[in-house]
């Protein structure tokens, strides 16, 4: 690819950035518009001091913990719901009435039960991640071609082995869809959870990127700091998604 | 050909009836009525009949994938209730595992079956043998979606054979293929089945088709089925010499047999093309 073509995707973002810089300089006195230059300086400070990476890492740990618990549970419950009709029929109303409740609405409960640390945050994340994973597991298991299951049965393979060797690999593409959605909402809700718990900063704060944003907002009214945090959040989300996609590419060679 | 009547049947269908009850209306539909059929060791039995006569239902019941409403199914003196490795099935739509390569598909039975799974080295030997036998050499690491229809059918056939069943059940395996591929695979099927082998060393085959020529070309006996409800009209013995070659199709004996079967089902085949509702 020529240099010209390679630069093309950056032209529009750079133009917008320039426009933003100009607008911010023009209205610097009258608005609370953050300036790109300040954001850059702030970003460098936060990265070089290690504060930002540490906060992101803290949040990421919680996301992965909550996601791992939620995904394992959703995999078991979802497979059972899809493979055994009575279980599906009885659990479905319960699932569907809990699913619309916003994860952040569980925050008071989570704080009362688990305090303001990692367990509470992981609980919120897990609750958020559970439903997309569950719905996609059910869909994935249900949409497996019955023909291949019949074929496996005629080869003299037990039902449990069929679950492991036919049903799970067959549902895997949908499980990946579920995982990507679940990680997305998990990452969204960790920020909200930490942001809300962040009010207790100074004594028993939650830590993590959400709290960092709250501190910038409440104690220093530093917009540049908040913008840097937002960029960090976006970058980590992008890396997670690309990671899952790479895993998907590697694990589903037959889908390439 | 030895006289079949003096032998003990390998598979025995006694008075099989299959009735479907519509879940909401409770309306009963009789799909198959009182089918009795003996299948003997090492014979190639074809079942032909018009669409909807219940040919596939009979095959599914022998496979253990469906159960009769009345009547009994017995193989080697034991009732058939569930699928088992001793009865291999080749499906019309191949039913290959899309996430497994040709090699992994063929290896599936020997690897995961409950009764006597093979070690990795034994599997390797057997998979290699069947890949060569069905001429899939070079395509071992391809996925089903990368194969042509004919190659998929070869793979499905090898998958069933590699599990070393005593009985091979084939449900219109060549129906989805183009005419030339079908002719080639018919001849290969007979070669692989082992026309030169003594009857005791051959696999017992039950082959469903709606192609009369196909049935006459392949079979030792042809069971002709009829509609409403599905039942066996007659069983014809195909006394054509083996090994059979393409040229057999042009002979008078072949044409006579095919025509006799056609006369038996032409009226219903004609009716099936007219929608009377």
Automatic annotation (TrEMBL), chain A:
GO-annotated cellular components: plasma membrane
Protein name: NitT/TauT family transport system permease protein/sulfonate transport system permease protein
Domain of life: Bacteria
Principal place of residence: membrane
UniProt keyword Cytoplasm present: no
Positions of transmembrane segments: 63-84, 105-130, 181-202, 214-240
Compartment list: Cell membrane
Higher taxonomy: Bacteria, Pseudomonadati, Pseudomonadota, Alphaproteobacteria, Hyphomicrobiales
PROSITE patterns: ABC_TM1
Keyword Cell cycle set for record: no
Domain ABC transmembrane type-1 span(s) in chain numbering: 56-240
Signal peptide interval: none
BP GO annotations: transmembrane transport
Family label: Belongs to the binding-protein-dependent transport system permease family.
Automatic annotation (TrEMBL), chain B:
Keyword annotations of the record: ATP-binding, Nucleotide-binding, Transport
Domain ABC transporter as annotated: residue spans: 11-252
Highest taxon, organism lineage: Bacteria
InterPro entries recorded: AAA+_ATPase, ABC_transporter-like_ATP-bd, ABC_transporter_ATP-bind, P-loop_NTPase
UniProt-recorded Gene Ontology molecular function terms: ATP binding; ATP hydrolysis activity
SMART domains hit by this protein: AAA
Coiled-coil annotated residue ranges, if any: none
Family, per entry: Belongs to the ABC transporter superfamily.
Protein name: NitT/TauT family transport system ATP-binding protein
């Amino acid at each position: 690819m020529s240099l010209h073509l390679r630069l093309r995707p950056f032209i529009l973002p750079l133009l917008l950035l320039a426009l933003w810089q100009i607008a911010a300089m023009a209205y610097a006195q009258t608005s609370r518009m953050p300036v790109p230059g300040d954001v850059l300086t702030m970003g460098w400070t936060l990265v070089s001091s290690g504060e930002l990476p540490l906060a992101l890492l803290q949040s990421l740990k919680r996301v992965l913990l909550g996601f791992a618990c939620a995904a394992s549970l959703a995999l078991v419950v979802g497979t059972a719901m899809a493979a055994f009709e009575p279980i599906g029929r009885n659990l479905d109303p319960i699932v569907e009435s809990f699913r619309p409740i916003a994860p952040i609405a569980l925050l008071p409960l989570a704080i009362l039960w688990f305090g303001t640390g990692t367990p509470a945050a992981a609980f919120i994340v897990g609750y958020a991640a559970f439903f997309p994973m569950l719905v996609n597991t059910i869909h994935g298991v249900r949409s497996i071609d019955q023909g291949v299951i019949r074929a496996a049965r005629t080869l003299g393979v037990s039902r449990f082995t069929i679950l492991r060797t036919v049903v799970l690999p067959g549902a895997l593409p949908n499980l990946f869809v579920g995982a990507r959605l679940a990680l997305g909402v998990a990452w969204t809700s960790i920020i909200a959870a930490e942001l809300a718990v962040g009010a207790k900063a100074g004594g028993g704060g939650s830590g993590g990127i959400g709290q960092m944003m709250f501190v910038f907002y409440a104690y220093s009214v530093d917009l540049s700091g908040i913008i840097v945090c937002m960029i960090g959040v976006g970058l980590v989300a992008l890396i997670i998604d690309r990671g899952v996609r790479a895993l998907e590419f590697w694990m589903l060679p037959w889908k390439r | 050909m030895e006289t079949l009547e003096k032998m003990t049947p390998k598979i025995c269908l006694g008075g099989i009836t299959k009735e479907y009850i519509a879940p909401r209306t409770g309306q009963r539909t009789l799909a198959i009525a009182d089918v009795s059929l003996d299948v003997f060791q090492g014979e190639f039995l074809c079942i032909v009949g018009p669409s909807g006569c219940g040919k596939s239902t009979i095959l599914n019941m022998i496979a253990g994938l469906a159960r009769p409403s009345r009547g009994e199914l017995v193989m080697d003196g034991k009732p058939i209730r569930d699928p088992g490795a001793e009865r291999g099935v080749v499906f019309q739509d191949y039913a290959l595992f899309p996430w497994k390569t040709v090699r992994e598909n063929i290896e599936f039975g020997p690897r995961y079956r409950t009764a006597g799974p093979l070690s990795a080295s034994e599997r390797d030997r057997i998979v290699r043998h069947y890949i060569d036998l069905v001429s899939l050499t070079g395509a071992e690491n391809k996925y089903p979606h990368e194969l042509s229809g004919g190659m998929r059918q070869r793979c499905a056939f090898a998958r069933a054979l590699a599990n070393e069943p005593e009985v091979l059940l084939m449900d219109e395996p060549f129906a989805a293929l183009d005419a030339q591929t079908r002719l080639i695979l018919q001849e290969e099927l007979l070669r692989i089945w082992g026309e030169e082998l003594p009857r005791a060393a051959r696999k017992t085959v039950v082959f469903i088709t709606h192609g009369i020529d196909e049935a006459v070309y392949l079979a030792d006996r042809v069971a002709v089925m009829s509609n409403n409800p599905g039942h066996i009209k007659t069983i014809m013995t195909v006394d054509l010499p083996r090994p059979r070659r393409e040229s057999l199709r042009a002979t008078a004996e072949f044409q006579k047999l095919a025509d006799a079967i056609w006369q038996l089902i032409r009226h219903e085949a004609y009716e099936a093309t007219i929608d009377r509702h």
